[in-house]
Design goal:
The complex is a heterodimer of chains A (408) and B (173). Chain A is α+β, with helices and mostly antiparallel strands and 408 residues long. Helix content of chain A is 46%, strand content 14%. Chain B is α/β, with parallel strands linked by helices. The longest helix of chain B is centred in the first third of the chain and has 13 residues. Classes of the chains: A alpha+beta (408), B alpha/beta (173).
Chain lengths: 408, 173
């Protein structure tokens, strides 16, 4: 008879940059049961929102998640705008869509790199994170920051997109499109990737519905759920959209859905740039919001994001409830892990794309001798990094990248 | 007849007593006003098993003064979101777990226990969520009367100021 062993993995998980505790019971090397423990990162954000005004809450809500910051602030803004009875301009709605899809591009490319790293395919990590830098540069161009873009405000958006910025976005999209063709080819035809990801972390169509899976996890199990289509929020009612689904119901399917969604997001951004309407960026919203309650939904890169806001006639909300996409998908993880090998645990957990943050782009240098501070912007930081390695005999420009091949 | 009207009609057909308490909030949103525990369980059972509300999204705990409110958000295949509300007095906040119908409600209900002090009967055993193990007992941070300023984070004790006797004018000497 096989002896059962229980292993606690975490709270500092080796594969995730966020604390989570997974108590895994093994029989040999097979997982027989898994208990997911989270809550280490609970920051009391909902209580903090009640003590602050709606505008101040925007800053908190943007920081629910580093990667999905725009989708959270969109959901919150939509709720407050509905309570105040205001409608934003079409231009503002289009800009919200552009940012949301750029955020999705960033998130999916980031995930692809993490997934590659988890399975020992670090070349994929290098390629996709190099491409992700282009998207982050585009987000910084429009929002002034790589994460927490600060585009949304209650009543519209804070920044416009100029024609020259549109052109820069288009050239970035051309680059990402070519790269994504390679990633799709890789996901669909590379035999080692299929052998590693196929058949692990299975979640059937029925279980996806029963356990309330959302986003790419649900779509990879054949559930055609996408809040952009269901709710048609922001300007999505005017966009031709295809919901990407897959029937594999495993980690492989989740990878396929995400690389195909990158292509779909590129199409949506191009459509938005081609049809960007004129109009005001922001309409005025009263500071005091009339009494009421609203449930607002958006499609985050990881799935359905729900915000509930109840107002009491003052300038502060009475209750704010945030249900992020990962919160819904954790329920499926324990089920996915059962029956798989211990070695598959990191990639199965990573396959739901749990949240973790990105670092800021500016650093502050303290000169010990003079005591003065110097803030480096992104370009200066990049130059500093290149020079640092060049002085040590490592010149990145001298490296020749070999032609990429796919083992079919 | 739209999807929302059909939902309202279906609920009122089964529970005529809810006339005036089920309403369409906006497109894709239907609200069933606050029900006491016994009525709530009957309506939830009907919605989940006979009316096609098979997807559970979340529970929202709210503090309504003397009572706690629990808003269960469900949806059906036509993507109508239903906000089904239950209430319980703050002094006796007893509710039943819905995990037997919706297994993904588990953590949401644990959150109600930790943050609102709800007593959820038949909740499956497991670790608490989301507060830490050394959190002071009897402190429910999402209740309106709980003030984060009075929590001593070093000793993890909650020290509200002593109640002031109105007869003494409320001024310290």
């Amino acid at each position: 008879m096989n002896q059962r062993i229980t292993i606690p993995i975490g709270p500092q998980h080796p594969s995730l940059k966020e604390p989570g505790c997974f108590t895994i019971t093994l029989e040999g090397e097979k997982v027989v049961s898994a208990v997911v423990g989270v809550g280490y990162n609970h920051r009391g954000l909902e209580k903090a929102c009640e003590a602050r005004t709606y505008i101040q809450d925007m800053y908190l809500i943007e920081r629910v998640c580093g990667i999905c910051s725009h989708t959270h602030s969109t959901a919150f803004c939509q709720a407050v705008e509905a309570l105040a009875g205001v409608e934003i301009s079409r231009r503002a709605a289009y800009i919200r869509v552009i940012m949301a899809e750029l955020e999705r591009l960033h998130s999916h490319l980031l995930w692809l790199g993490v997934a590659g790293h988890e399975i020992g395919f670090d070349t994929l990590l290098m390629y996709s994170w190099r491409d992700r830098e282009k998207v982050l540069d585009a987000l910084a161009l429009l929002g002034g920051n790589r994460v927490n873009y600060g585009i949304n405000t209650i009543g519209g958006v804070r920044r416009d997109i100029s024609p020259s910025e549109c052109e820069q976005l288009r050239s970035m999209l051309d680059f990402i499109e070519e790269e994504d063709k390679y990633f799709i080819d890789l996901a669909l035809h590379e035999s080692t990737l299929a052998a590693r990801l196929g058949g692990i972390g299975r979640l059937s169509y029925e279980d996806a519905l029963r356990l309330g899976a959302v986003g790419p996890v649900a779509r990879a199990s054949g559930v055609p759920t996408d809040i952009r289509v269901i709710e048609k929020y922001a300007a999505y009612d005017e966009f031709p959209m295809e919901v990407i689904t897959d029937e594999h119901s495993d980690v492989f399917g989740r990878a396929v859905v995400r690389v195909k969604e990158i292509m779909e997001s590129i199409k949506l951004i191009r459509f938005a740039l081609d049809n960007l309407p004129d109009g005001e960026l922001k309409v005025n919203v009263p500071r005091r919001i009339p009494e009421g309650e609203v449930l607002s939904r958006t499609e985050a890169p990881r799935g359905e994001d729900i915000h509930y806001v109840r107002s009491n006639g003052t300038d502060k909300p009475d209750r704010v409830r945030v249900r992020a996409a990962s919160e819904a998908n954790w329920h499926s993880v324990a089920h996915m892990l059962e029956g798989d090998y211990l070695a598959d645990v990191p990639i199965i957990i990573a396959a739901i794309d749990p949240c973790y943050s990105c670092t800021d782009r500016a650093i502050v240098l303290d000169h010990r001798d003079t005591g003065c501070q110097q803030v480096l912007d992104w370009e200066a930081l990049r130059r500093y990094s290149v020079d640092f390695y060049r002085e040590r005999g490592f010149d990145a420009k001298s490296i020749k990248i070999p032609e990429r091949k796919i083992i079919r | 007849m739209g999807a929302e009207e059909r939902v309202v009609a279906r609920i009122l057909e089964r529970f005529p007593v809810l006339e005036g308490r089920v309403f369409i909030q906006k497109q894709q949103r239907v609200v069933v006003d606050y029900l006491v525990r016994r009525d709530f369980e009957k309506v939830l059972d009907f919605l989940a098993h006979d009316a096609g509300f098979t997807t559970f999204h979340l529970v929202i705990g709210v503090d309504n003064g003397d009572a706690l409110g629990f808003i269960y958000v469900l949806s059906n295949e036509e993507n109508v979101m239903l906000l089904l509300k239950e209430k319980a007095p703050k002094s006796k906040p007893y509710i039943s777990s819905v995990c037997d119908i919706f297994p993904n409600a588990l953590w949401h209900e644990r959150e109600l226990v930790d943050l609102f002090g709800a007593v959820v009967e038949n909740l499956p055993p497991g670790p608490r969520y989301p507060l830490p193990d050394l959190w002071p007992a009897g402190n429910y941070p999402m209740r309106k009367e709980w003030n984060p300023a009075y929590l001593d984070k070093k000793t993890m004790t909650y020290n509200p100021p002593a109640a002031v006797d109105p007869a003494e004018g409320g001024e310290s000497k």
